[in-house]
């Protein structure tokens, strides 16, 4: 499967097949879509809600491959800007955290939706896209996760000193802290507060998920 793993509404690339094999795959996908229950149904509903509140859906950026590339680049540039000059103290700092975590949920649930074909939109295969796009966007997702948690660590440390042992100096130091906290590295500063520990666990979990999907996209991409 070589569907795009990062953005809401990116139609999946049809899997090559011919004859009975191709018909059987399409039939299995259709039947699986109708058998969602339990945790699968709950995750499908969450993914549908996430797509509904996505900025890409509001402005129809998810209608084309070019639009999705622009959507990802705008978010990537915005996260870099927030880390570089965004506020870190008072309520403006927490607003910035809310913005970046909005992007995180957008990224994670669309990744799961496209990988598992949970929502009706993810199962719609209207056209074929460049097979390299899913791999590239999956790799960009990893950088975005690093930026999201770097901003969260920066604001947390500014609001609550002592959240980490030996907190970084300078904003780039928080990018480095976030980067080395990704699996399999896991060698960042030791979190001391409950919030810092929760953020570290969250980064390791989401980072592992996206890294596994990125590897899967790379291995499944046509040679």
Brief characterization of the structure:
The chain is an all-alpha fold and 223 residues long. The chain has helices spanning 19-33, 39-52, 55-58, 65-85, 90-116, 120-123, 132-159, 171-181, 194-220.
Salient structural properties:
single chain, 223 residues, mainly alpha, 0% strand, globular
Task: Outline the structure in words.
- With 223 residues, the protein is mainly α.
- It has one domain (19-220).
- The chain contains 9 helices and no strands.
- The protein has helices spanning 19-33, 39-52, 55-58, 65-85, 90-116, 120-123, 132-159, 171-181, 194-220.
- The two termini are 14 Å apart.
- The model is unreliable at 9-33 (pLDDT under 50).
Radius of gyration: 19 Å
Distance between the termini: 14 Å
In the residues, how many domains can be counted?
Answer: 1
Work out the helicity level: 55-70%
Structural class: mainly alpha
How would you sum up the major sheet? none
% residues in beta strands: under 5%
Low-confidence stretches: 9-33
General form: globular
What is the number of strand segments? 0
Mean pLDDT: 79
- SSE order: HHHHHHHHH
Please report the number of helical segments. Answer: 9
Question: Any chance you could write out the topology, listing elements then pairs?
Answer:
Blueprint: H1 19-33, H2 39-52, H3 55-58, H4 65-85, H5 90-116, H6 120-123, H7 132-159, H8 171-181, H9 194-220
Helix pairs in contact: 2-5, 4-7, 5-7, 7-8, 7-9
